[in-house]
């Protein structure tokens, strides 16, 4: 693969799909200082997936992702290029090895928005942890990291196991206890999101976990957590939390 050439092709495709009006609105919504072309995520994904279609090697995937992530215009990162970098990793996550987690970590640490972090967390980091369970120890360290987006990544990475019916209940419980007192909205929301998705498969566990912590859980977290619980349980937990 001519990585530099493919990066150029991806940028050309994305620029051609751009909508200046959408770009303005997107920058405002995301409070972004990046360059935006104004391309919807599904369209970015389609271009990114095309770039790694066919036979590609692990090293090529990593080099392409790094190349796209580092693209700048007028000294500023390009939003769609970063989204494409993540989509490349997600599409070819099966090629990645345990040591490649550092690439995802670097991307998260170079991010300050859910728009990049969430996809990385669940579909790259989370899937790597499922395949290589020893990487769970990295999440154990991340949940106490000073950088909020790394803590969010640790929590959201557990969604991957939840969605395939293999939830790591021990870590969900431990991470939940570690984060339940957080005041950061994006941490509270992440915890609630994981509990909400888990409740679709194991409502009893979520009900019990929330009930034992109803005096300390935030409104943001509990409203997400009970969304798919039986109406009676949800009402009881919400009423108890408001007292």
From TrEMBL:
It comes from the Bacteria. InterPro entries: ARM-type_fold (IPR016024), DNA_alkylation (IPR014825). This is 3-methyladenine DNA glycosylase AlkD.
């Amino acid at each position: 693969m001519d990585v530099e050439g493919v990066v150029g092709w991806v940028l050309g495709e994305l620029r051609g799909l751009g909508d200046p009006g959408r770009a303005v609105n997107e920058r405002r919504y995301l409070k972004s200082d990046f360059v935006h072309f104004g391309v919807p995520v599904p369209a970015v994904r389609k271009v990114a997936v095309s770039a790694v279609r066919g036979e590609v090697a692990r090293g090529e995937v990593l080099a392409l992702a790094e190349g796209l992530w580092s693209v700048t215009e007028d000294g500023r990162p390009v939003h769609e290029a970063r989204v494409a970098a993540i989509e490349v990793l997600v599409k070819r996550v099966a090629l990645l090895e345990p040591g490649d987690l550092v690439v995802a970590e670097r991307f998260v640490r170079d991010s300050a928005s859910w728009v990049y972090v969430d996809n990385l967390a669940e579909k790259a980091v989370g899937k790597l942890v499922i395949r290589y369970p020893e990487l769970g120890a990295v999440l154990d360290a991340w949940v106490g990291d000073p950088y909020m987006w790394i803590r969010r990544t640790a929590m959201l990475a557990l969604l991957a196991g939840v969605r395939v019916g293999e939830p790591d209940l021990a870590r969900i419980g431990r991470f939940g206890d570690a984060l339940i007192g957080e005041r950061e909205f994006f941490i509270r929301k992440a915890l609630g999101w994981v509990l909400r998705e888990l409740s679709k498969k194991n409502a009893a566990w979520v009900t019990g976990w929330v009930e034992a912590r109803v005096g300390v859980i935030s409104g943001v977290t509990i409203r997400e957590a009970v969304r798919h619980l039986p109406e009676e349980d949800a009402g009881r937990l919400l009423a108890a939390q408001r007292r």
